[in-house]
Amino acid sequence: MAPEVITRAKGEGHGRAADIWSLGCVVIEMVTGKRPWHEYEHNFQIMYRVGMGHKPPIPDKVSPEGKDFLCHCLESDPKMRWTASQLLDHPFVKVCLTALAANTADGNQTSFSWLCAAMPQGFVS
After folding, report:
1. CB 7, CB 21: distance < 8 Å
2. Which of 1, 14, 23, 27 is most buried when burial is the number of CB atoms within 10 A of its CB?
3. Cross-referenced SUPFAM superfamilies, in alphabetical order (predicted)?
4. DSSP single-letter state for residue 40
């Protein structure tokens, strides 16, 4: 849950910027297989941390491009958080989109396992 949803600061709350925060959390979960702050038993513990200005830890195994992408998703100030359009132009996403376009041009792909193989070495270890 994005900080502005928890604190309701300045009349902010649910919106596209909060969705981008959630995207960052989903990417962390996809990389680690665990939700951010998985060590906390109760969601209220996580909400407290977010409300106090803490960001989910970015996994060490994420590439510099991935870390930068996540930093833009997890920007505390929703006005400074990147939009979906900006994120689509980020190198972390462009590599995936390029691989997707190249491998689906023939229309025969039935699995996304090729995407991991198409990623540059070290992009996500």
Report:
1. no
2. 27
3. Protein kinase-like (PK-like)
4. -
Is 28 in contact with 101 (CB distance < 8 Å)?
no
Helices (H), 33-123: 43-51, 64-73, 84-88, 91-104, 113-118
Q: Return the structure tokens found at 77.
A: 């100030």
Nearest-angstrom CA–CA distance, 112 and 103: 9
CATH of 3-118, one of 1.10.460.10, 1.20.1050.40, 1.10.443.10, 1.10.510.10: 1.10.510.10
Q: What is the pLDDT along the chain (125 residues), one digit of tens a residue?
A: 888 888 876 666 788 999 999 999 999 999 899 999 899 989 889 888 888 888 999 999 888 999 999 999 999 999 999 999 999 999 988 887 777 777 666 665 555 555 555 555 555 55
Of 70, 118, 69, 125, residue with least CA distance to 97? 118
Cα–Cα distance for residue pair 95/81, rounded to 1 Å = 21
Is residue 75 within 8 A of residue 81, CB to CB? The reply is yes
**Ranges of each domain in the chain:** 3-118
